[in-house]
Amino acid sequence: MPDATVTYREALNHALADALAEDPAVVLLGEDIAAAGGSFKVTDGLLARFGPDRVMDTPISETGFLGAAVGLALIGFRPVVEIMFAEFAGVAFDQIVTTAAKHRYLSAGQMHVPMVVRVVGGSGLGFGAQHSQTTESWYTATPGLKVVTAASPQDAYHLLRSAIADPDPVVFIEHKRLYVRRGPFQPTAAPVPIGRAAVVRSGADLTIVASLAMVAESLAAAESLAAAGIDVEVIDIRTLVPMDVDTVVASVSRTARLLVVEEQPLSGGWSGHLVAEVVSRAFESLELPPARMGVVEAPIPFSHALEAKAVPSAETIAARATTLLGR
Fold first, then answer.
1. Which residue in the list 62, 136, 233, 263 is annotated as catalytic?
2. Are 81 and 73 spatial neighbours (Cβ–Cβ below 8 Å)?
3. Which of 28, 74, 178, 292 has the most CB atoms within 10 Å of its CB?
4. What's the domain count of the chain?
5. Of 137, 163, 185, the domain-final residue
6. Model pLDDT for residues 82-110, shown as the tens digit of each residue
7. Structural domain includes residue 190
8. Are 104 and 112 in contact (CB under 8 A)?
9. Is 131 a catalytic residue?
10. Candidates 14, 131, 175, 273; catalytic one
11. What pTM, to 2 d.p., does this model score?
């Protein structure tokens, strides 16, 4: 496909189609991903192109089809599993964190589990407390798993391709509010490796690090702060495991200030790990204590009005940055 502007959803669809076309070992599994094209239409059209042996509808049993995916990976396939809502992976945690994540270690490197678990998370659409979490921290404390969070169509395509090619299990977290967001798409561009953050806006006064939908909110906040004479650098962390702390440290060494924004409660959040790493590596560069923003310490409300207040926004990020800088 030539260079274009596409939605995040379309970029993921292209990534899956290209992986299926290039490698016969790639297979897709999940609830309603075949005939229906996926609950969020990410797999739309793939059944017609590749057939039911490559794009497989499963029973409503995450435990069963994630276990099947582990088995497929161990015998040479590269399964990509869709979890309709991120929270639904909870019933199959044994397959993800105990089985898939441990096979390489337990086999002394003789066995690999090259599978991708695509989980659909995020707030903003009024799905309520049980369908609106991003769930990154469910996985980041498990050695053996890689955790990827793409925030743009371009990164969604290239990071999903990198995840499918990876020899180890990858949890690929998508944000349902981003599915309709459009952006540049260059499938022939250089691959985006897992484990490398991106500076998506340069600045000199403050570093903001974010993931998923919080990247767009942080960029919008940075634009509004620019009008007030505050120059903000925004980093899309892109991969939580492995985490590119070096890029953040290099930024903080220039700006001397750090604000980390995540769409999770701060208790146990990945931002705490990042702040600890930055403090240990760049303490002398910091002019202010690093700050963190996250979701309120409560389930995500169903009400659109309350949901909007529970999650960081461009306005609240800008306000926190202004307070942090004493402006």
1. 62
2. no
3. 28
4. 2
5. 185
6. 999 999 999 999 999 999 999 999 999 99
7. no
8. yes
9. yes
10. 131
11. 0.96
